[in-house]
Amino acid sequence: MLFGAHISLKDGFEGLPDRAKRVACEVFQFFSRSPRGGVVKPIDPKIAAAFRARCAALNFKRWYIHAPYVMNLASPVERTHDYSLGLILEELNRAEVLGTTAVVTHLGSAGTEPKTTGIKQVAAALKAVLEKYSGPVKLLLEISAGAGSLVGDSVADFKAINALTNHTWGLCLDTAHLCGSGYDLTTTSLVQKVLDQWDREVGLKNVGLLHLNDSAVPLGSRKDRHAHLGKGHIGLEGFRAMVAEPRLKDCDAVVETPKDDEFKDDLMAMRLLKTLRGR
Most buried residue among 71, 84, 100, 264 by CB atoms closer than 10 A? Predict the structure, then answer.
């Protein structure tokens, strides 16, 4: 398992690899645009080439893009649904230009409609993705913490999406979101129980990325609040068990924990995870 952090794009693509290396990342994640969405210019091929070359020079082999937070594939509102589908396709193509391994996306909310409606909307969008994108970048569906009518807060949701699309989708498991949606990761035995369930229902081999975040809110809170590793309601034993899990040994892991101006918190997180891994 290789470790990394979410790195800010504030200084452009060219500086991303160096900022990731500065905090001892082995992989990294970033937004390719504002997380609030909006119109964005195509990525300059020269900038993309320089980015890929710098990643190679610093020995990065994999990096990941997180889709904008405005993504709502589950929306029953046609305009919102179609906009979100367009964003996903755009992100996959931008990721390909940058040599990215995968794009991670939240699925969104059904709003005032039943969750079953949201699941059908997600499935319709993902079918369109299969029809319109055939490149090398993987699309990973991230678990949500389950507030409101969010889709993707349970293994059952992802199993249903796979069945409706006749396709097995890659997944991103976020530990804080798992905690928020009621999956207890506080002990080694409980982690094993949760992972066994996900393995039976959707296959842990399909987990393409982990988000290792502690939770600032209690188990089953249905809230998404990240905390530093070992400082929240999951605790270090849970993260030690995740890192040691043989079925996840080839899966990269990224932290999305609170940051300080000097990025010392990210560096401390990398050191902690490498200690749990045994360097």
Answer: 84
Q: Is the pLDDT of residue 279 over 80?
A: no
Share of the chain above pLDDT 70, in %: 99
CA-to-CA dists, residue 65 to 16, 29, 122, angstroms = 12, 6, 20
Give first-to-last CA distance, the chain, whole Å.
Answer: 10
**DSSP of 48-99:** HHHHHHHHHHTT---EEEEPPTT--TT-SSHHHHHHHHHHHHHHHHHHHHTT
> How high is the pLDDT of residue 38?
83
Residues 6+ apart with CB under 8 A from 278: none
Task: Look up the pTM and report it.
Answer: 0.97
209: nearest Cα among 96, 65, 97, 109: 65
Q: Looking at residue 134, which CATH number applies to its domain?
A: 3.20.20.150
For the stretch 131-165, pLDDT in tens is: 999 999 999 999 999 888 899 999 999 999 999 99
pLDDT at 178 over 90: yes
Give me the domain span that covers residue 225.
3-277
> What's the structural domain count of the chain?
1
Residue 70 in contact with residue 87, Cβ under 8 Å? Answer: yes
